[in-house]
Amino acid sequence: DGRFDRKVTNLITDEVDSYLGSNIVTNGDMELDDNWNNQGSPTTNERSTAEVYSGTYSRKAIGDSSGDGIKSDTFSIVAGNTYMIEFYYYLTTGSNNLLARLQDGDGNDLSTSVGFGAKDTWTRIIFCRLAETTGSSAFFRVYQNGSGSSTFYLDDVTVKEVGIATGWTDADQQ
User: Fold this and answer.
1) What percent of the chain has pLDDT over 90?
2) Is the pLDDT of residue 105 over 90?
3) Cα gap 134→152, rounded to integer Å
4) What does the DSSP assignment read for the chain?
5) Phi, psi (5° rounding) for residue 124?
6) pLDDT of residue 165
7) What is the pLDDT of residues 47-95, one digit of tens each?
8) What is the separation of C-alpha 122 from the centre of its chain, rounded to a whole number of angstroms?
């Protein structure tokens, strides 16, 4: 009669999925007037409504020398784990370019900094870093690259552990 039976078998082999953990940066959405500290000696480090990516507030920083910016409160990371850093920034015309860096679990520099400098628009930055030292002195920072002055806004900062799920099979659902 033209019909036939099909037996459908789900077979997954060598499947690898990644997942992201929770945000480990406190107040990454900048809605509280807390948890962001001076990096260097910025002339301004404040919660602001002047330029906002999402929510009601962003964090505004004005620097007048190389290294001026803002940094998060410290958090814990684990050696051997990869972390994805994502944030939005708004840099005003006439400002120097900026750098961003994740500090390792002992507070020391982790890998290289990431440079960027698009102006007068909200711009999304994403990068990953492999932690080398386990500890609770890690932090994220954004700061001015070079002398002169820079005015920038930061919003929606996340630092999340990147995990790998391997060996999943259809049997795990049964």
Assistant:
1) 78
2) yes
3) 31
4) -------------S-EEEEE----STTTT--SS-SEEEES--SEEEEESSS-SSSS-EEEEEESSTT-EEEEPPEEE-TT-EEEEEEEEEE-TTPPPEEEEEB-TTSSB-S--EEE--BSS-EEEEEEEE--S-EEEE-EEEEE-SSS-EEEEEEEEEEEEEEEEES--GGGG-
5) -95, 135
6) 60
7) 999 999 999 999 999 999 999 999 999 999 999 999 999 999 999 988 8
8) 15
What is the rounded CA–CA span in Å between residue 150 and residue 144?
A: 7
Asked if residue 89 lies in contact with residue 122, where contact means CB atoms within 8 angstroms, the answer is: yes
Residues 112, 55: Cα–Cα separation, whole Å: 31
Mean pLDDT (the chain) is: 88
Q: Which amino acid is at 100?
A: A
pLDDT tens digits, 131-154: 999 999 999 999 999 888 999 999
Give the residues across from 167 on adjacent strands.
none
Cα-based torsion angle of the residue sequence 57, 58, 59, 63 in order, rounded to the nearest 10 degrees: -130
